[in-house]
Design brief:
heterodimer; A: 157 residues; four-stranded antiparallel beta sheet; 1 helix; 11 strands; 3% helix; B: mainly beta; Jelly Rolls
């Protein structure tokens, strides 16, 4: 299986520009392809802010994050399973947290999103995601795959 | 214009790739850098920022007691499932709310990728919360992480309803995935 890469963003639709008011005729219907990057998150050795670790996820500038989720294949510590997703500016707010206490697919949604402004638009430079586990966690076994979906360069600011 | 005709049918074209399709302004991987130190020793602008285009397949499913192949949904080897959605248009009513589960083959026995879900009302359902075991989660992570599958073989999906009920349930199953990621195989 070969890979095809574009600078992007990738869009599709057969009416590229709005030049009138008639749907299906002259009103643009182009949408973005949603992109995704994934990275492994492990509990061992990455508890507390001081032990944050980079993922290999780098979101392009001016992208809109549409989803963050964690596919937990081995449950995290039984008492504290929060996983914080930081951006590349440690002084900035965290993007959110996800509870990984049980095996399954866990969404970062609602009030778990701590920085909706960055979700709306990651800003004028690329952001590099890191994570750490709640500092009171004592577990070591947790394993998950972080899923980050986004619209590349949607530029909503 | 005839009913249900697509106004774009003369202008739509499909562009097909063997895939996966990626997009980003920097493509080349950096095999080794300091991941342990934050902010670290490498700038974000030196790292690749390419992501995968999310692929999607949809097909109709129906309530039947016997397992039934989900026609037209076949995932490439090593794909990662990101989400599964079911749009219920006619309610399911199997015994004990065991309305529908999804599993994959090849394998001689049931290999669930979702446990049974209650589809007792018309609506849209997210099956992400129906991952109940580590083995099932690993199949989402890599659909080829199942016994009896040969390297490189595609994975077929099967829908299964529990016993009982009217067997009149109807729905649309949609699976979003990254093709050929091979996180475990």
């Amino acid at each position: 299986m070969s890979t095809t890469s574009f600078a992007g963003p990738i869009k599709a639709g057969d009416i590229l520009n709005t030049i009138g008011t008639t749907l299906s005729d002259d009103v643009a219907n182009v949408g973005f392809a949603t992109m995704v990057q994934v990275a492994q998150v492990i509990e061992l050795g990455h508890v507390a802010t001081a032990n944050s670790v980079w993922t290999d996820i780098v979101i392009p500038a001016n992208s809109q994050i549409t989803r963050m989720a964690l596919l937990v294949t081995t449950a995290f510590d039984s008492t504290y399973g929060y996983i914080y997703i930081d951006n590349d500016r440690p002084s900035d707010p965290q993007l959110g947290n996800i509870v990984g206490l049980t095996v399954g697919l866990h969404e970062c949604e609602g009030t778990r999103v701590s920085d909706p402004g960055t979700w709306k638009d990651v800003g004028s430079s690329d952001i590099h995601l890191s994570y750490h586990i709640a500092s009171t966690s004592t577990g070591t076994a947790g394993v998950g795959t972080l899923i980050v979906e986004y619209v590349q360069n949607n530029n909503l600011t | 214009m005839a009913a249900n005709s697509n106004p774009h049918k003369n202008t739509y074209n499909s562009t097909r790739f063997s895939g996966p399709v990626k997009s980003g302004s920097r493509w080349f991987p950096v095999p080794s850098y300091d991941r342990e130190t934050v902010p670290g020793t490498i700038a974000a602008t030196a790292l690749p920022n390419t992501g995968y285009v999310i692929c999607s397949q949809s097909a109709g499913v129906k309530q039947t007691v016997a397992e039934e192949s989900v026609n037209n949904i076949v995932l490439p080897a090593g794909s990662m499932i990101l989400s599964i959605q079911i749009i219920v248009t006619t309610v399911f009513d199997a015994t004990d709310d065991k309305d529908l589960s999804i599993y994959c083959r090849p394998e001689s026995a049931l290999t669930w990728i979702t446990d049974y879900v209650n589809l007792g009302a018309v609506g849209v359902y997210d099956l992400g919360n129906r991952i109940t075991t580590s083995a099932t989660a690993n199949r989402w992570k890599d659909v080829s992480y199942i016994p009896d599958v040969k390297a490189g073989d595609s994975v077929d999906l099967i829908a299964d309803s529990g016993a009982g009920g009217s067997q009149t349930g109807r729905a649309i199953l949609t699976i979003n995935y990254i093709p050929g990621l091979h996180l475990l195989t």
